[in-house]
Amino acid sequence: MPASGRLCRGVAYLVEHAVFEHLDHRENNGYQRFPVQITFDSGAQVDNGVVYVADQHNPAFLGAAPLAELAQHIGSSHGPSGSNRDYLLNLAEALRELGDNDPHVQALEALLRP
After folding, report:
1. SS3 labels along the chain
2. Which residues pair with 45 in a beta bridge?
3. Given 27, 93, 97, 109, the catalytic residue
């Protein structure tokens, strides 16, 4: 279940309903789709946003594992869309471009970057 009142910065995409078949397949490793309200930087809002959230029932969920263990797991994991390491490195870059400082992602990036 998503955490109430939490902030998740990012980019919102307007997608065709048919795209969800692909997204649901890509996120099928223990992720659940939840409706959310999206607030844009302009203050405008939409009520029909969607996020995929993994919880402790996800087979890949490590919980409060040490950072080095998380990095090792990420570095060796692959899914239908590719390398988990590449995903994390791309996420870190995207957050930088948004001006969002996420110390946890940055610490994992430092352990995974060659």
Report:
1. CCCCCCCCCCCCCCCCCCHHHHHHHHCCCCEEEEEEEEECCCCCEEEEEEEEEECCCCCCCCCCCCHHHHHHHHHCCEECCEEHHHHHHHHHHHHHHHCCCCHHHHHHHHHHCC
2. 39
3. 27
| 109 contacts: CB under 8 Å, gap ≥ 6 | 88, 89, 92
Contacting residues for 60 by C-beta, under 8 A, at least 6 apart:
29, 30, 54, 73, 77
Whether 27 is a known active-site residue: answer: yes
Residue 72: C-alpha distances to residues 68, 97, 107, 109 (Å): 6, 25, 13, 11
- Reported as a single tens digit per residue, the pLDDT across 53-67 is 877 887 777 778 899
Q: Considering the entire predicted model, what is its pTM?
A: 0.74
Q: Which of 38, 56, 57, 58 is nearest to 47 (CA)?
A: 38
